[in-house]
Amino acid sequence: MFFRRLLSTMHWSTLNRPCTISVEGNIGSGKTTFLNHIERFGNATVFAEPLHKWRNCQGHNLLDLMYRDPKTFAFTFQSYVQLTLLEAHTCNITTPFKFLERSVFSARYCFVEKLKRDGFLSPPEFSVLDEWFRWICQQQKVAVDLFVYLRTDPEVVYERILKRDRTEERTVPFEYIKSLHEIHEDWLYHKTLYDCPVPVFTIDANMDLSEITGEYKKFENQILEKNKIFIGV
Ligand code: TTP
Ligand code: MG
Asked: Which residues' Cβ are closer than 6 Å to ligand 1?
């Protein structure tokens, strides 16, 4: 019912820009896996998260520096995250649909928020990032038409993070993952944190990879096929 209403009000086909879908969810929730699944269809350009850039900004591994010494490097890292995500938002494409792994919105509303709460961003550093974010939203083409929220339990993603063993993330404590989960929940699920005027499609992403394609199918059936995103598949 919700989706019928959603689809009839969105008029995606009348947008004079690509319809933009941002995939969100905690660290390790399966955003990259979901986008790899989407990539095999036509008609959509997929922007995976620019992690390689965060690991090598003119030779500096900013992700590693941020985790090792957040007090010193959180501002530097989040500034660069914002820039690289903005590049994906504004990149011109020829397909009618654009899929993003994360957005300037989750960088600001989840990570910058968390770093501010933890005192790793000083009030002036937070204000500068926030002013940049506000300017970007007003001046740049960062509109998102739908958020796909890969909803997970923090215990599940924490296990996945340990298993995939990204060098930079080895020191991330469970408490950090748990409170990032709560921030995602408040923003995208309960909608009590910041404004979320865009529809959210929530997928249960707790299952392991062998089972999760069934959940993805729900998204394909309810959103993609009805909007003829993947014509000819
Ligand atoms: P995620 O953006 O959550 O990407 P992922 O590849 O870990 O997720 P998935 O498994 O669902 O594909 O995080 C990538 C890393 O970057 C992670 O260590 C968190 C960090 N990060 C920040 O610290 N600040 C930010 O603003 C963003 C977007 C990520
Ligand atoms: Mg990823």
From this structure: 25, 27-32, 49, 51, 63, 78, 81, 102, 107, 111, 169
Dist CA 207 CA 186 (whole Å)? 22
Distance 160 CA to ligand 2 centre (A): 12
Ligand nearest to the CA of 168: 1
The CATH code of the domain that includes 119 is 3.40.50.300
Q: Are 209 and 152 in contact (CB under 8 A)?
A: no
Q: From CA 215, how far away is CA 132, in angstroms rounded?
A: 36
Residue 5 forms part of a structural domain: no
- Classified as helix, coil or strand, 226 is coil
**pLDDT tens-place string over residues 40-94:** 877 889 999 899 999 999 999 999 999 999 999 999 999 999 999 999 999 999 9
